[in-house]
Sequence to fold (216 residues):
Amino acid sequence: MKLNKESLKKSLLLYAITDSNMIGNSTLSEKVEEAILGGATMIQLREKNISKEKYLALAKEVKEITDKYNIPLIIDDEIDVALACNAEGVHVGQKDMDAATARRKIGPHKILGVSAETVEQALLAEKAGADYLGVGSMFPTSTKSDANLVSIEALKAICNAVKIPVVAIGGISKENISRLKDSGIVGVSIVSAIFGQEDVKEATGILLAEVEKYLK
Fold:
């Protein structure tokens, strides 16, 4: 079921993106649950270099957790996996499938997120049917070594150019969330500062407090 605009905006406040390489001996489902209990409002399953079969199995496990807490699950890139596990939506990057094709494949009722670095990319994604944009990388990040940095000014320009909600991504931590105040974003997407922490629940709670302080 596709969220209405207001529900989607609220769900994007603290958007946790997975990385199994960071979780040690725990299962990803356990860490996702900890993140949700800490205050994560949306989960994206983003797993690279695993087979489609493993990705789907993992997606089904995580979907059980997100359903338990009524939290939307977004699948990165893999539309087949998103449809097979009945995730709430899919997120595609500029180097992945184009937004218009993704929208056709998932239909009108799923959430479509698109990565953007420029106003031009943002406007094209919105026109193609994106429901929200992920803009970054805002700060240097080890999660995506090839990511280009986006300035705060460019982030503001994108937020002003589109009518759909925008989240910032890339190297965001409790120390720098304040720098994103008044940029126009509705939330932040975070990988390392959640899943790279020893106590995921506690780390998520601290981030939520910062997000609510500067972005609400």
